[in-house]
Amino acid sequence: MSQPSMDTIVNLAKTRGFVFPGSDIYGGLANSWDYGPLGVELKNNIKHEWWKRFVHGRIDMVGQDGAIIMNPKVWEASGHLENFTDPLVECKNCHERYRADQIDLTKPCAKCGKSETLTEPASFNMMFKTFMGPKEESASTVYLRPETAQAIFVDFPQVLMTSRKRIPFGIAQIGKAFRNEITPGNFIFRTREFEQMEIEYFVHPDDWKEKFEMWLKELHGWIDFCGIKKEWVHEYETPGSELAHYSERTVDLEFDFPFGKSELYGLAYRTDHDLKKHSEYSGRDLSYTDTVTGEKYIPHVIEPSLGVDRTLLAVMLSAYTEEEAPTADGGVDKRVVMKFPHALAPIKIAVLPLSKKPELRDVALPIVEKLSKKWNAEYDETQSIGRRYRRQDEIGTPYCVTVDFDSLNDHAVTVRDRDTMVQERIAIGELEDYFFKNLKS
Ligand code: ATP
What confidence category does residue 1 fall into, taking pLDDT thresholds of 50, 70 and 90? Predict the structure, then answer.
């Protein structure tokens, strides 16, 4: 199956209420996006499933939720103040800005077409700076975190003490990160404000290779669970010259986005870089003592780092399906179906009375009220039933429940499966059991 274009996905996202341009009534704000009613459900489901799988689902993991604004010394110690930079070039003619490592510097400016107008690359720090307190002076400069990871390193001794975990174990966190990207773009792929799901997994230095492979496998398992197409995912072994300042090995999981193969997730071996630096800068001993062997060492770290927004984009691109479907009059129609895994679908069940007649509404409303105590269920009575099925297909709702005039007598409804379009007659009293059995978690 070929991939939909970005325009198709962006359009569906906007018109169906997944993702809207941010600050739209004021003309927008470059590359900022807001998640609408369906987008926030999809995003929350992604985060919830990730947490369920990697925090609740494993006895060697705990979670935490650190502050976005941290003591600026954190960024000094981690190396972000010095190294979290991108090489910036600017066209002297039209002032368009580029990342020097993403373009051919010998070519003319892509915007104005002039040759030899690009400045020399200059390092540009991507951290957003702001001020804490009422005075805008350097003493009060603070930064919005560019990654969630550092709070985990800084809190390591407290988590270790309170959680009673022993190495190997990991700490997970989900939260916003901010980067003043030179060239944001491609919808929600690269934005200046985004969300990450990160794990710092602490290991004995001798074990890093084995645990690295374990996490690589886990990431593929997660990708599979999300319905992200395996054939569009590739491992990229980052060469030494491209490694981040903290990493000794990084494998990127790249995805074939419509605009080209690009990073979806990163898996990095961060060595003992972070804990060592924080020990040095804070004066606190961040080493670990093995209670069995008595060995004292600074733990090494494997970091699976996942973008929530890029996950959502890859999930939408993978779920998008166009199919031929029969029409009521015997013809053939095209239908668009978002084949989300049930666990990620924003709405699990739509309850649709065949018409707006009050007697059907009286049966349908109690059904949706009951089902929505267990699942995210929606009620919709406008437009023809055919169009309502198409809308539910397009937003990926696994099941539609239709209340018709027979329901008044047989106390049963029609349940339609999103993927097979097969319809079954189910007694109203058995609906909950039916969905417990058929909705996959
Ligand atoms: P890139 O090379 O695309 O700039 P990166 O290597 O800087 O990404 P990491 O620092 O490894 O990214 O961040 C971990 C994850 O966070 C990425 O794999 C991606 O999913 C997500 N991410 C990073 N930057 C952005 C961004 N600007 N917008 C959305 N998601 C992002």
Answer: low
